[in-house]
Structures are given as structure tokens and as C-alpha cells.
Specification:
Blueprint: E1 5-8, E2 15-20, E3 24-29, E4 35-39, E5 44-46, E6 51-53, E7 58-60, H1 61-71, H2 85-95, H3 106-121, H4 130-138
Antiparallel strand pairs: 1-2, 1-5, 2-3, 3-4, 6-7
């Protein structure tokens, strides 16, 4: 599911992939539903391709979002993304205890929380693909 959700550099929020043109993507904002083109010069990243650093490995964003959803019982985050840095680090330690404190900045945690809230508010709650869920349940 997260493969179709995109972040476009220079544009606020997240976007859903609607269509693909010759040299552009047509994306729809999750904030206001407006459709805009994202050209090949724009840096577009799928949420499915993002990972967070931990002390031992990189954890896919889908797993981090799933842990956040479990912590918040499927509700929007209980913490304000604009909270102070120490509060954000403490919150992140509760979600992902072994996150790399040197390479994961407070701005990254703010972005994670705001993306999570945006996804939850748009009823996008399936963060793990079915194959990933089955693999993690077997472990």
C-alpha cells in the first residue's frame, strides 16, 4: 500500500499516485485532494522505499508505521509533531527502542509523526504488505 503513497520534495504533505504520463506523474494530495503533476525534475520518493536507521540495521518505514499504529491503538499520534526535541526522542524510543540516535534527527521524527497522522486521517492504515505480515507473524 505504501508504494503508491509518495513524498514530493518542495511540496507539503503526502500524495497518492493517480496516473503516469510521459515525463510526469499525476499525484493527488492527501491534504486537500488536489491533483498536480510531479515532473521528472521533482524528487519523488515512495514511502515503501524509505527506511529508518537503527543500531543494527535499517527498518522499513512500513514496520515503523505499524509499530507506531500499535502504540497509538490505530489513532492519530498522541504527541504533537511540533513538540520539543527531547520529547520527540523519548517518544521515538518508545516506538522503536533501538533507533540510531545519531542518524535519526528530530526533524525526521517530526516528519514521521506528521506522515502517520496524515495517513491515519485518510483511512490508510494498512502499512505492511500481506507478504510482510505473513513473514513477520511466522517469526
Amino acid at each position: 500500500m505504501l508504494k503508491e503513497i509518495l513524498s514530493v520534495t518542495g511540496k507539503p504533505g503526502l500524495f497518492k499516485l493517480v496516473s503516469q504520463g510521459k515525463n510526469m506523474l499525476i499525484v493527488e494530495s492527501l491534504i486537500d485532494g488536489k491533483r498536480i503533476p510531479a515532473y521528472s525534475r521533482d524528487k519523488v520518493v515512495s514511502l515503501g522505499d524509505i527506511a529508518m536507521f537503527t543500531e543494527t540495521e535499517e527498518v522499513p518505514l512500513s514496520e515503523v508505521l505499524e509499530k507506531l499504529k500499535t502504540k497509538e491503538n490505530g489513532q492519530p499520534a498522541s504527541i504533537d509533531p511540533k513538540a520539543d526535541n527531547d520529547t520527540l526522542r523519548k517518544f521515538m524510543a518508545e516506538v522503536l527502542p533501538d533507533y540510531d540516535r545519531d542518524r535519526v534527527y528530530p526533524s525526521d521524527i517530526r516528519k514521521l509523526i506528521s506522515w502517520y497522522n496524515l495517513l491515519i486521517n485518510n483511512n490508510i492504515t494498512e502499512f505492511l504488505a500481506k507478504e510482510e505480515e505473513q513473514a513477520s507473524s511466522k517469526e
